Amino acid sequence: MGGDDAPSVTVHGALQARGDGLEVILVGQPEILSAALAEAGAPDGLRIVAASDVIGMDEDPAFALRSKRDASVRVAARLVATGEADALVSAGSTGATLAAAHLVLGRVPGVRRPVIGALIPSRRGGRVVLVDAGGRAHAQPDALVGYARMGLAYAGVLGVGAPRVGLLNVGTEPGKGNALAKAAYELLHLGVPGFSGNVEPGGVLAGDVDVVVADGFTGNVFLKALEAASGRYGDSAAVVLGVTDEVLVTHGAATAEQVARALRMAAEVTAAGLSGKVAAQLQGTVDGRDVLNEEAL
Question: Going by CATH, does the domain composed of 8-296 fall within 3.40.50.2000?
């Protein structure tokens, strides 16, 4: 039910993914979803699980999630929690999806704040993990240390050896940026292995780092600026790191093809066991205490 052109675009995307052999469950208002399936020429094509409420993009995510217990994103998260589904994909409110993942699925031990991780192609041919890509607009400096830890774990799962971490900033010199950036720099320098200092957007695109850390507002503006410049909106889904199951978000303006790609990516990260591998890497550092201050998470 989420997305700028839902449910038509999301239904068409789900049908495309089904054509690849994926089993997709639609969660939302049955009469609306059934009509969209009929319009798409597949009246009996996909299973529908009823959810009477929808969280709008203009609503406060946490309040709406608490007050709308039958919201589609919350019902979808319950399907994952009970094992009826392997992953959750949403083109709706990122904040609501993050809150549902946090509330219904739960966090990995040692993680205080799950984070949105997106992959940015670099000119060197690799991919840079961006955290936070839009989960929380406001963050304290110690939260960015936790984001960096989860970004490091994600990079490790992707096969990057000894990942380099950068703090997104307006300049590369130490002491640059606002109060948050300056305080976060000191914490990252003291407590995050592979921290290489500040990095500008150009350095991210050049592949100077493997993980780039930002607060959710800055990270999301950076990501959307890249999407606008390239003309590709929501081309790659982002994952929620730090929760116990696979949760992905895609752009509200995503096309049916991009929704289908997000569903395929959900199948891929499920097959790879991403959330479990991230948890294992984080738990190893938490238990070892040699490279991680648990309080920073």
Answer: no
